[in-house]
Each structure stands twice: as C-alpha cells, then as structure tokens.
Amino acid sequence: MKTFILYNPIAGNGNCREDVSLLDVLYQNTTHINMRRITNYRTLLSDISQDDRLIICGGD
Fold first, then answer.
1. What is the mean pLDDT of the chain?
2. Four-residue CA torsion sign, 35, 38, 43, 49
C-alpha cells in the first residue's frame, strides 16, 4: 500500500510542506505531491489504486 499526500504549500502560513513531513512518521511508503503543480487530477487519481491511501492537507 502506498500513501499519497497532496498538500498546498502556501497553507498554514507557508508551513504546510514541513507539517506534512510529520506524516512520514505515521505512514510508510509516502509520496508527497504539491497540489499547486497538478495539471490533471484525473490522470493523478487514475494512478492511485484502491488499496492505496490518499491524504489531502492544507485546504482553505
């Protein structure tokens, strides 16, 4: 199982990226994805299997 962590780097007064790194302690095999760089969510989500975990951080 993979864990995909989508984050908004400007959330939390610009500290979201650092805060998200704390999730690496709780979850193994993590991939951090900057939401501001995603150009096609359909493609991104099609690469995530049903057994994977998706965490979204930093939404306003």
1. 90
2. negative
**pLDDT, tens digit (0-9, with 9 covering 90-100), for 10-33:** 888 877 877 888 899 999 999 999
Distance CA 17, CA 12 (A): 9
> H helices within the chain, ranges in order?
11-14, 16-20, 23-26, 41-46
Are residues 6 and 57 in contact, defined by beta-carbon separation less than 8 angstroms? yes
Q: Domain extents for the chain?
A: 3-57
Q: Is 39 exposed, middle or buried (0-12, 13-18, 19+ CB in 10 A)?
A: exposed
Look at the block and give the residue holding tokens 């704390």: 22
pLDDT computed for residue 54 by the predictor: 96
